[in-house]
From TrEMBL:
Presence of the UniProt keyword Zinc in the record: no
Family: Belongs to the ABC transporter superfamily.
Domain of life (superkingdom): Bacteria
Pfam families tied to this protein: ABC_tran
Keywords, sorted A to Z: ATP-binding, Nucleotide-binding, Transport
Stored InterPro entries: AAA+_ATPase, ABC_transporter-like_ATP-bd, ABC_transporter-like_CS, ABC_transporter_ATP-bind, P-loop_NTPase
Protein name: ABC transporter-like protein
CDD domains referenced in this protein's UniProt entry, alphabetically: ABC_NrtD_SsuB_transporters
GO molecular function: ATP binding; ATP hydrolysis activity
């Protein structure tokens, strides 16, 4: 079962020379175990920063993040977090197969051949098991990163724009696969996306963020029934929810040009 995540008053400010950039200001979130929550927001609103805090790769300046009541570092140390970050960061000297096996090796676990092949088939890379990352397209590399994030059956899955470079057909296929995997084993999932329809299709909740300073402005519950199918994309409720998310997103984007968010 996935882990519950509680974010209380989280603040993260970066210093760039004499200036400071408020990447996250007083973010509060409650993420129930086993749910999928999307972070939707404009470039620079702190989505990746928040994901790095969840992954235990960075620390907030103020506030707290608790995963099942513990520090994100504990979960990271026990290899229970699966991550696919924006720059897929595959190891260039390792094949597709061996990149996907990496989290298991780090956790001191042995790879089941059938499981690895199953993941490779799922992300549509059969026949490319021995290819090196440089021999793949950008979208194929992203699919390797998704398979790698899932291989160790994590309690928390952190996906930073994992479907960004994929064509529409592959994207929908992977949306349905992710849903299938999560139905079998409800891993708590944080998905960063710029795409409103993707957020609504996949999520239990959409957290709309705004920038300068980076903050969570509204959480929208997605009450579409499961399983979500291609027919969901044509339903009236799906379109209503997309419109609502867009409205919130754009209502907070209007002042963007006027404000730099940078404090001297
Ligand atoms: N290590 C860092 N040092 C200095 N500033 C940083 C650092 N990491 C992030 N920032 C700043 O924090 C802000 C938020 O960055 P972040 O990468 O979280 O945005 P994002 O929402 O993921 O954007 P995008 O959609 O473009 O990926 C930006 O203004 C960025 O310049
Ligand atoms: Mg980012």
């Amino acid at each position: 079962m996935g882990a519950a995540i509680a974010v209380r008053g989280v603040t993260r400010t970066f210093t760039l020379g004499a200036r400071s950039v408020v990447a996250l200001e007083a973010v509060n979130l409650e993420i129930p175990a086993g749910t999928l929550v999307s972070l939707l927001g404009p470039s620079g609103c702190g989505k990746s920063t928040l994901l790095r805090l969840f992954a235990g790769l960075d620390k907030p300046d103020g506030g707290s993040i608790l995963i099942d009541g513990g520090d994100p570092n504990e979960l990271r140390a026990s290899h229970r977090i699966g991550v696919a970050f924006q720059d897929s960061s595959l190891l260039p000297w390792r094949s597709v197969w061996s990149n996907i096996c990496l989290p298991l090796e780090l956790a001191g676990r042995t790879a089941e051949r059938a499981d690895i092949q199953g993941l490779i088939d799922m992300v549509g890379l059969s026949g490319f098991e021995n290819a090196l990352p440089a021999q793949l397209s950008g979208g194929m590399r992203q699919r390797v990163a998704i398979a790698r994030a899932l291989v160790a059956t994590p309690s928390v899955l952190l996906l930073d724009e994992p479907f960004g470079a994929l064509d529409e057909v592959v994207r929908l296929h992977l949306h349905l696969e992710l849903q299938r995997i999560r139905a079998a084993r409800p891993v708590t999932t944080l998905l960063v996306t710029h795409t409103v329809s993707e957020a609504v299709f996949l999520s239990d909740q959409v957290v709309v963020m705004a920038s300068r300073p980076g903050r969570a402005v509204r959480t929208i519950a997605v009450d579409l029934p499961y399983p979500r199918t291609p027919a969901t994309l044509r339903s009236a409720r799906f379109h209503e929810l997309c419109d609502l998310c867009s409205e919130v997103l754009f209502s907070h984007a209007s002042g963007m040009a006027a404000s730099t968010g940078v404090q001297e």
